[in-house]
Amino acid sequence: MIKDNFTIKKIQEGLKCKDFSAVELAKKYLKVIEEKDKDIHAFLEVSENMALKQAQEVDEKIAKQEKLTLLAGVPCSVKDAIMVEGLKCTAGSKMLKNYKAVYSATSVKKIVEQGALILGKTNLDEFAMGSSTEHSAFGPTKNPWDLTRVPGGTSGGSVASVSAGENIFSLGSDTGGSIRQPASFCGVVGLKPTYGAVSRYGLIAHGSSLEQIGAIANNVEDCQTVFNTIKGKDEKDATSVALSFPTTNLPTGRQVAGRTTNYKIGIPREYFGEGLDEEVKESVLKAVKGLEEQGCQVKEVSLPHAVYALACYYIISTSEASANLARYDGVRYGHRAKSQKQKANSLLEDYIADRSEGFGSEVKRRIILGTFCLSSGYYDAYYQKAQKVRELIKQDFALAFEKVDLLITPTSPFCAFKLGEKLDDPLQMYLADIYTVSINLAGLPALSMPCGLNKEKLPIGLQIIGPHFTENKIFDLAKKTEITLEK
Q: Which active-site residues does the annotation give?
C-alpha cells in the first residue's frame, strides 16, 4: 500500500519489502501531478514515459535482488534551467521555448545513476531572474499553502512541486537565494551548496561566479541524501572542487570549561534590524532559543558590509547575465522574430527584433543594467567597485567564523506575498533576497528550513550559514531544530 508523507528512507524500505513497486510509485505521483498541478503550475513538462521507464529498470534490479542504489525509485523533478537529455530546457523563456536538451547535466546524471525517477521539468523565473516565479514566459507558479500567493523564486516550480507532494525532491539552482527564498515561502528545506561543491555543467548560465545547483526536499535528511549524491569534482566544470565530503555527520561535541557542549552559533545583528517582519523575527529567535537550551552557545556577531550586499549583488549578477545572455541572438540558436515585417535587412536590426521579442521585461532590464555597468567609463565606478565590496563581504564572514561555527538568520524578511503585489516595483521585489545574496557573493553554503507559521498560516524560513564546505555541520544543526509544518 502506498502512503502519503513519503521520505527517501520510507520509499527504500517499501521497495525492499515489496509493499509496492517503483512503477506503482511513479504512477501514484504522476496522478498527483495530474490532479494538483492544474492549479499550482509547478511543471512545464511532465516526462511520464521517462519516469515509467526508469521505474521499470529499478523494479528489474529489485527482481534480480541487486542492492538498491541511494535514490532507487524516488520520484523527483528538475528545474527547467538544468539539462535533462531528451526533455525541453526553456529556462522559462520564450527565447528557448522549443529547445530540447541534447545532454544531461552532471547533477542529473548522478541522480539517474542512483535510480531517481524524473517526473518532469519545473517552472522558474525567466533565465533564473526574479524572486517570485511570476517572470516565467509560461505563466506564474502558485504557492501550495495559498494559491493567491507567490511560491518565491527563481526555483519556485521546484519548491512548489515538493511542497505540494508532487514529488519527493527537486534539483534547483541558487544565484542569489533562488532555492532558499522559495523554500522559506513554501515551508520546505532547500540547500545552496558551497560554490564548487556541485558541478554546474548543464546549468544554463546566468551569474557564473554566483550560481550553484542544490537540493530541495521536505526534510533535512532527504536534502542531505540528495546533496551527497550530486556533490563532487567534475572534469567538465573547472570551478568544481575535489574534496571529500563524509556521508556521515561530523562530530559536533567540543570541550569547553570541562564540559561537552554543542556548536557556537552567531546571530548577525545586521539581519535583525529595520525591515524584518516581527513574526519572522520572533519565530527565528524562538528556534535559536531552542538550540541554546540543547547546549549550543549563542552570541551576537557583526557583518558590517551586509548593508551593501544587495547593491553589490545586482551589479555583479546583471553584469554576468549581460555577458552570458549575449549568445541568444536568434541566428545561431534561440527565438526568431515571428514576422519578417518586424525585421530589417541589417544584422543588427535582426538581433534587436529577435531579442526584443524573445526576452521578457525583467531579463531585458537586467541585460541593460549589466551592459551599462560594464560599459566604457562606468566599469571602474560600478563593476570594479562591486568586486571590491564583495571581498569585504567575504572578509566579514571569515572574521565571524573565527568566533562561531555557524550563523543563523531569517531566510527572507517576510512571508510569501500576493501574486502581482510587487511586479510593478522591481526594487521591492529585489528586497525579498536581502538576506540571501551575501552568501552567494561569499561562495558559502546555506540552508533554509521551516521554523514556524505566521498568523496567516504561512511558512517562515530560518537560514543556517556555514564556512566553505561545511554542509554536514549545517545539516547536523538543522536536524536539531527541525520541525514539521502542518497545512
A: 79, 178
Give the distance, in angstroms, between the CA of residue 210 and the centroid of all CA atoms in the same chain. Answer: 12
Q: What is the per-residue pLDDT across 246-266, written as a single tens digit (0 to 9) for each? A: 444 434 444 433 333 489 999
Predicted local distance difference test score (pLDDT) of residue 258: 38
Gap between the Cα atoms of 142 and 156, Å rounded: 8
**This model's pTM is above 0.90:** yes
Q: What's the half-sphere exposure (Cβ side, CA atoms, 13 Å) at 443?
A: 16
Burial letters 151-171, b for 16+ CB under 10 A, else e: bbbbbbbbbbbbbbbbbbbbb
Read off the pLDDT band of 367 (50, 70, 90): very high
Task: Give the integer Cα–Cα distance in Å for 371 and 231.
Answer: 33
φ/ψ of residue 364, rounded to 5: -60, -40
Selection from 430, 210, 195 nearest residue 320 by Cα: 210
Whose cell is 555577458? That residue is 323
CA distance 333 to 485: 45
DSSP state of 380: I
State which fold the 7-487 domain adopts: Amidase signature (AS) enzymes (3.90.1300)
